[in-house]
Amino acid sequence: MITKAVVFDADGVLLDSLPPHLQICRDLAQEYEINVTIPSEGTFKSNYVRKGIKISPMDDFFRAVGFIEKLIAGSVDRYNDEFAHKYGVKPFPGVKELFDVLKRDGIQFGIVSSNTFNNVVTSLGVLRNYFDDRFIITREHFESKPEGINEVLRRMGVDPDDATYVGDQRSDQEASDEVGSMFVGVTYGWGIDETDTDLLLARSIADVARYVRK
Fold first, then answer.
1. pTM of the shown model
2. Which of 79, 89, 164, 196 has its C-alpha lying 20 to 30 A from 69's C-alpha?
């Protein structure tokens, strides 16, 4: 596949963030003394994400795991204030090497994420230095993910049919299809797995590089 630009989702694609997301739910549920059972990572993937339960943005995540409505707004505020610094989300191993490959090959790359800008760039750490901030578009900047992908490609000066979006959920694939870009689904993230044989599947960060390199 020849591509001029790669646009990444963040959570579950570049950032190993599902366990911390479930942990903040456990911590807040304990603090609030509410009787909810927060699912394991595997259960969340199979019984929530793959069944199409809405989990994004974060109010929907709290709602999905059983938080009552009156607690959701405050939980989102706590998430926005505390998550990036307290829960230590890190990039997956190999992300730096992937960025080095893309940069060497002259492929532009950016991010379109339903998470917040602060959470994304804090979790990237020093890897933020690989990005032009104009090419990091987060939930504060768009009404829908297709809108975000189109905007970052516009800023790059790249046509959608010359670009690839890399995501980890069926909703990411649908957004990519709406834009008209190629799509690569990663199986190590939140919602795509080996049974999704209709997709180009990346089983590792190295697989992503193999798909998008010239």
1. 0.94
2. 89
